[in-house]
Design brief:
mainly alpha, 2 strands, two-stranded antiparallel ribbon, about 130 residues, single chain
């Protein structure tokens, strides 16, 4: 008799009472390979404590957030939801968000103008660091 278990996104097939999970599969999944529930983060307006635990992870998060907001249908999130999420990021990550947004889709900045100018007014000094 076999059983199938999904463990950290890795399918493990067990036979009898022994589960076929190797030590490689028990290691933590790198952030870059994880699915990020942006829809949940935008809906709740909160990031879990310690979620962005390094500058590298924060930059990866921002890169993927930019691609997410540019690819979901209009109305999937509001500017206030996005603003609430961005406010939880380090100021440099906030500036990086708008930089990446502009590089990825220069024409879209007009859609984010109010959000852009609100954040850039607060962090004008960071633009030149």
């Amino acid at each position: 008799m076999s059983s199938t278990v999904l463990y950290h996104g890795v399918l493990a097939i067990g036979f009898g009472s022994t589960l076929g999970v190797t030590s490689h599969q028990q290691q933590a999944v790198p952030f870059a390979a994880q699915s990020i529930p942006f829809d949940e983060f935008l809906a709740s307006g909160k990031l879990p404590d310690g979620y962005l635990n390094s500058e590298y992870v924060a930059r990866q998060f921002v890169e993927r957030l930019v691609h997410y907001i540019l690819s979901v249908p209009a109305g999937s999130y509001s500017m206030s939801q996005l603003s609430q999420l961005l406010e939880q990021l380090d100021p440099r990550a906030q500036v990086f968000f708008f930089k990446r947004l502009k590089e990825t889709s220069p024409d879209c900045l007009k859609d984010f103008a109010s959000l852009y100018y609100g954040f850039m007014n607060e962090f004008h000094s960071l633009l030149f660091t």
